[in-house]
Amino acid sequence: MKVSEAIASRISCRAFLPDPIPEKTVREILDRARRAPSGGNLQPWHCHAVTGPALKALLADVRAQMELTPRGEPGEFRVYPEGLSGPYEARRFKCGEDLYRTIGVARDDKPGRVRQFRRNFELFGAPVALFIYIDRRMGPPQWADIGMFLQNIFLLAREQGLHSCPQEAWAQWHGLIAAHLKPPAEHMLFCGVALGRMDESAPVNSLRTDRAGLDEIARFHGFG
Ligand SMILES: Cc1cc2nc3c(=O)[nH]c(=O)nc-3n(C[C@H](O)[C@H](O)[C@H](O)COP(=O)(O)O)c2cc1C
Predict the structure, then answer these.
(1) Which of these, 12, 206, 30, 211, lies nearest to 131 by C-alpha position?
(2) In a mutational test of the pocket of ligand 1, which residue from 118, 134, 151, 168 has the highest number of ligand atoms less than 8 Å from its CB?
(3) Res 107: pLDDT
(4) How many angstroms is it from 205 CA to the middle of ligand 1?
(5) Is the CB of residue 191 below 6 angstroms from any atom belonging to ligand 1?
(6) How many angstroms separate the CA atoms of 102 and 117, rounded?
(7) Which ligand 1 atom sits closest to the C-alpha of 13?
(8) pTM value?
(9) Ligand 1 in contact with 142 (CB < 6 A)?
């Protein structure tokens, strides 16, 4: 598969088939993904791959805890800047509207929206979870490095016929997840990644998000 094909066919998949993914495949993806560049070659990423009984136990724990504290734990970082406005706010709004439209959830259907959001914590049915950690001492440049590692994972998944969904939502269960995975205290959970085979028949996977045009995001200088 060409890189451009992997990029074009990658979407955030929100319904997976339960088919297990062999350890060898997950290892191969992560082994190749670690070639991502990072400033000073710091390689600030730390990853836990979870499947089978370990994943089942974790998801069951989250499910139980969600009954007690539906909003999860206090976050360790702010996912979006305060007072998001302008094109950023508009894109975020549209992305949500488009997503809910695919599954027939109306704007005022709060329970329907909550139900979809909670699917995050079922990993959208995926058989493998990756939990991505960053050392707390790291700053914005290293967070950008993590993004490159993640995108490698997403594209390599495509090469293996798999799909993925990055899930910042998991950050709201960082303490509970740490109780399962026991990362060192200096590691902070950035996000989860759902990994597996796409359920092609699921309406939610029909979503194709748009992008701002090239002229909106790039200026060209000196090309003649
Ligand atoms: C770091 C990161 C975190 C994300 N977290 C979530 C999430 O928690 N739940 C979710 O359904 N989608 C999540 N997404 C998916 C975005 O909504 C999605 O990438 C965006 O709408 C563009 O759509 P596409 O990935 O299908 O091209 C996340 C994406 C990124 C890059």
Answers:
(1) 30
(2) 168
(3) 87
(4) 13
(5) yes
(6) 14
(7) 26
(8) 0.96
(9) no
Tell me if 11 CB under 6 Å of ligand 1: yes
At residue 224, does pLDDT exceed 90?
no
pLDDT tens digit sequence for 70-108: 999 999 999 999 999 999 999 999 999 999 999 999 989
Q: Write out the DSSP string of the chain.
A: --HHHHHHH--B---B------HHHHHHHHHHHTT---GGG---EEEEEEEHHHHHHHHHHHHHHHHH-TT-SPPSS-SS-TT--HHHHHHHHHHHHHHHHHTT--TT-HHHHHHHHHGGGGGGG-SEEEEEEEETT--HHHHHHHHHHHHHHHHHHHHTT-EEEEEGGGGGGHHHHHHHH---TTEEEEEEEEEE-B-TT-GGGG-------HHHH----S--
Q: Could you tell me if the CB of 95 is within 6 A of ligand 1? A: yes
Domain boundaries, the chain: 3-75+123-208
- With a 6 Å cutoff on the Cβ, whether 163 touches ligand 1 is no
Domain 3-75+123-208 belongs to what topology? Answer: NADH Oxidase (3.40.109)
Residues 12-62: tens digit of each pLDDT: 999 999 999 999 999 999 999 999 999 999 999 999 999 999 999 999 999
Say how many Å lie between the CA of residue 12 and the centre of ligand 1: 6
**162 alpha carbon to ligand 1 midpoint, in Å?**
16
